[in-house]
Design brief:
Helix 8 packs across helix 9 (282-293). The chain is of the alpha/beta class and 320 residues long. It contains 11 helices and 10 strands.
């Protein structure tokens, strides 16, 4: 790794990291960063959200070794439980780099040239705001290919409108320009995920997918997203795109909102336990019926495929 003498004041890349009770994985995450071979400097903006394990001490240990690189915030009170968007509140405002890379404390990078490859591409292609790559899945210590590994075997240029439904990135694979969009836009969203970063970065530039496997995404019971079952993920994805569409009413978002709605209700249709749970609780029933009312957006999106009279009949019959 090549670290310039001006490391602290002139990093080219800012690495943003969220940590909570990840002492088992933190050293592997940090070693993946310090294995990077770069011709530029970088900084690590790491936020520990009041971990109750040894995560904070591990961060302090590495900060003592790399004081000009590791810039931690170690909370004494959990911020996520208060509804605080951690990156938006604590990490992004501290960014000094031209580019931002993301890697959570339970994931890690596997290719020592990952950062260099992404920076080289973005430097050479100013029309691109975002660069991502393939990854591997670490599930109970078993290494599996990503869902896109055998689908996208060649480099792929994309916009949000052409972005495949099979999500082609994880946070550990993302690098984007720090000036690609106004970060304050992210404060509008309740359902915050990398989807919003990708969407807003792609409003003023293109995205690029590299087929090289350069990171590992860890699936474990402590993961905020990976611990959810399929129905919960479908529900959150539905709510996410519904919310995004409420602000960004364009065809690209509408299409993904439609697909998320279909996936969510398709999951409910074949899940008797979910319907029984809703039926036992009047509040959940009312909420489910309200969500079904949003199905009219799906019908409108399918307007070109379904006869208009049929759509009107469905909407009238089910009072959509």
């Amino acid at each position: 790794m090549s670290i310039s003498e001006n490391q602290e004041n002139n990093p080219l890349v800012s690495i943003c990291t969220l940590v909570y009770n990840q002492e088992k994985f933190l050293k592997q995450y940090l070693e993946g960063i310090f294995l990077q071979k770069t011709t530029f400097s970088f900084e690590i903006l790491i936020h520990d959200d009041a971990s109750t394990d040894n995560s904070g001490n591990i961060i302090r240990e590495y900060q003592a070794l790399y004081p000009d690189i590791i810039k931690p915030i170690i909370q004494t009170e959990n911020q996520y439980s208060k509804g605080v968007d951690i990156n938006l509140t604590y990490n992004f405002p501290r960014v000094k780099g031209k580019y931002i890379a993301i890697c959570e404390g339970d994931d890690y990078w596997t290719d020592p040239l990952k950062l260099q490859k992404q920076v080289d591409f973005l430097e050479a292609h100013p029309e691109y705001n975002l660069c991502c790559h393939d990854w591997q899945v670490l599930y109970d210590e078993q290494i599996l290919p990503s869902p896109v590994h055998n689908i996208y075997t060649k480099p792929l240029s994309f916009t949000f409108a052409t972005l495949p439904w099979v999500w082609i990135t994880k946070t550990a694979t993302l690098m984007f320009r720090g000036n690609a969009f106004d970060f304050n836009l992210l404060s509008r969203y309740r359902y915050g995920r990398d989807v919003h970063i990708v969407y807003h970065a792609l409003t003023s530039g293109k995205g690029y997918f590299m087929p090289e496997v350069m990171a590992a995404y860890r699936v474990h019971s402590g993961g905020i997203w990976s611990k959810h079952d399929a129905n919960k993920k479908n529900r959150v994805t539905y709510e996410l795109y519904k919310e995004l569409y409420s602000f960004e009413k364009n065809k690209a978002v509408r299409k993904r909102y439609m697909n998320a709605t279909l996936a969510y209700f398709n999951g409910l249709l074949f899940n008797k336990k979910e319907w029984k749970r809703i039926a036992r609780n009047s509040r959940l029933y009312a909420e489910a019926w309200k969500n079904i009312s949003d199905f009219k957006d799906v019908l409108f999106c399918l307007g070109g495929l379904i006869p208009t009279n049929w759509v009107k009949w469905v909407m009238k019959t089910f009072r959509v």
